[in-house]
Specification:
By secondary structure, this protein is an all-beta fold. A five-stranded antiparallel β-sheet has the order 32-36-35-31-33, with no helix packed on it. A four-stranded antiparallel β-sheet has the order 1-28-27-26, with no helix packed on it. Strand 8 (about 105-110) and strand 9 form a beta hairpin. The longest helix is centred in the first third of the chain and has 14 residues, at about 1-15. It starts with a helix and ends with a strand.
């Protein structure tokens, strides 16, 4: 039942008016089943796709949503009191999540097949305000708050996975309640840097591991400051911290210059600055998401440093929105923000950039003797023209036999194997459909290819991946349908390892057969057939090619009139 829904979504995207595809904010509701979306945390994978952890207040569950390239995949990770979430992705694009599970600190990670969940700190009331980061070994480091309600004291704690066990320690226990609103980042030595709030003294504090002990200092003590902290490190490994000034109701920002703290007010337009989240772009400039109280409602706001001043804007003001924000920047330094919609009890997501104007229709890789032939077809309904494409390849595994597989508009496959290498030396251009021959391959290898579109403004977007294995004759497959979207006729390119009698069938999204045409005998190799589609109404269809020996290949097609 999922496939027709996804195909309908693709068609809807294609039918959206052209003004949607401007470079602007694009906002959507991710999950609205029950009261969901508090305690959000966002991370972007190697495709630039968002992964979001969040809290289900209706069922007291930890939930997780990821964008697959065509829709949101949503699941419950853990049940029973799972708040205060924080997410990080490893090199496989697999999520690691820290959270407060029934008043203890818990940790969940995706193994590639299921969720591995464990208790990190079983101390009662441990795990509040958790924040997670992964080190160079992809081991988790977690900062969090422990609070003893009986004695009314709390402190900042820190846990890290050593490879065999959890190492847990108290970082700061000064005063009677420190360590709320923690945020963690790791430097190049895998040493933690933590920003947090000292509730007793109403100060913003900062702790860093020097390699032998903890260095702790007050960053800002001017009034009631330091709630809703978020930290990021620049290329010099200097900390940048966003936080809330409760005395004045302002958003504040502090950065270490190398000798002292440079502190400034970013936004003072009313009560602003709750639920801050910070990320740094390639220039080391801060981007901050936060909420703004307007009367009785909240708005989502966003501030970025341009190099000379702060650019501030309201992102979403529909109802009461913008609490529990989390921000991440993509490869173009465009912000992606997850946040809570209080009015509808929903998880929302906003991203800045172009709309979904590029649709990858097909992407295949065929083994041909000592080379791999890559073919792809795209539809571009955006404002920006495609300047060209880049192809990236990585060696997946040793193999004696080969298969060809298509998997476009999906997250990277088998991400545990790193080592992407750019295939082309100059930008790939030409006419749609496109092709490229990769001659730098070896027999008996499985390769994965990643396709990237580069726009005229030099922004880029990963479109999808495909796999091929060398050492085997080509499989029976539909390689290209063109044009796609189509109107009255299409050309279907079919690759077959042997001569065969060919039949082509067309199915609508309900699975009903609408066209069946016997093509007749086709020769070994690549053949092209013409199919009349004038009788088809606008919609999404599946094209099925059938050989006489039972071989089949399926590919989608869109009719747009």
């Amino acid at each position: 039942m999922k496939r027709p829904v996804m195909l309908i979504l693709v068609l809807l995207f294609l039918l959206v008016p052209a003004q949607f595809f401007a470079q602007e904010w694009h906002i959507e509701t991710v999950d609205s089943v029950g009261d969901v979306g508090k305690d959000t945390s966002i991370a972007l994978d190697s495709n630039g796709y968002p992964h979001i952890s969040y809290y289900d207040s209706t069922n007291y569950d930890l939930k997780y949503a990821k964008w697959t390239g065509s829709g949101w995949d949503i699941e419950t990770v853990d049940s029973g009191g799972s708040a205060g979430t924080s997410i990080a992705l490893d090199s496989n694009d697999y999520p690691h999540i820290s959270y407060n599970g029934s008043t203890i600190l818990k940790y969940a990670r995706w193994t590639g097949s299921d969720w591995d969940i464990e208790v990190v700190d079983s101390s009662s009331e441990a795990g509040g305000y958790s924040s997670i980061a992964l080190d160079s070994n992809e081991y988790p480091h977690i900062s969090y708050h422990y609070y003893n309600p009986y004695y009314e004291y709390g402190y900042l704690k820190y846990a890290k996975w050593t490879g065999s066990s959890w190492e847990i320690e108290v970082v700061d226990s000064s005063g009677y309640n420190v360590g709320e609103w923690t945020s963690i980042a790791l430097d190049s030595n895998d040493y933690p840097h933590i920003s947090y709030y000292d509730w007793a003294k109403k100060d913003l504090k900062y702790a860093r591991w020097t390699g032998s002990d903890w260095s702790i200092e007050k960053v800002d003590s001017e009034g009631y400051v330091g709630l809703y902290t978020s930290i990021a490190l620049d290329s010099n490994e200097y900390p940048h911290i966003s936080y809330y000034d409760g005395t004045n109701g302002d958003l504040k920002y502090a950065r270490w210059t190398g000798s002292d703290w440079d502190i400034e007010t970013v936004d003072s337009s009313g009560r602003v600055g709750w639920y801050t989240s910070i990320a740094l772009d390639r220039n080391g400039y801060p981007h901050i998401s936060y909420d703004y109280l307007t009367g009785y409602d909240y708005d989502l706001k966003y501030a970025k440093w341009t190099g000379s001043d702060w650019s501030i804007e309201t992102v979403d003001s529909e109802g009461s929105v913008g609490r529990w924000t989390s921000i991440a920047l993509d490869r173009n330094d465009y912000p992606h923000i997850s946040y809570y919609d209080y009015t509808n009890g929903a998880l929302k997501y906003a991203r800045y950039g172009y709309g979904i104007g590029i649709e990858l229709i097909s992407f295949t890789a065929d083994d041909r003797e000592d080379e791999i032939v890559l073919r792809w077809s795209v539809s571009n309904t955006g404002d920006e023209e495609i300047a060209g494409f880049n192809l990236y390849r990585r060696d997946m595994s040793e193999s004696e036999h080969g298969t060809v597989r298509e998997n476009y508009n999906s997250p990277l496959q088998d991400g545990g194997i790193s080592g992407w290498q750019k295939v082309n030396t100059t930008l790939i251009t030409g006419t749609n459909p496109y092709s490229y021959i990769d001659t730098d391959v070896e027999e008996g290898k499985q390769y994965e290819y990643k396709l990237e579109a580069v726009m005229d403004d030099d922004s880029s977007e990963v479109l999808g991946t495909t796999k091929a294995e060398t050492g085997m004759p080509p499989s029976f497959t539909i390689t290209i349908i063109y044009p796609n979207p189509a109107e009255d006729a299409i050309r279907i390119s079919i690759s077959t390892p042997v001569s065969t009698s060919l039949t082509v069938e067309v199915y609508d999204i309900t699975g009903r057969l609408v066209i069946a045409e016997a093509i007749g005998e086709v020769d070994e190799g690549e053949s092209t057939v013409l199919l009349d589609t004038a009788s088809l109404a606008s919609g999404v269809y599946a094209i099925k090619a059938k050989g006489e020996n039972g071989d089949t290949s399926l590919k989608r097609m869109i009719i747009l009139r």
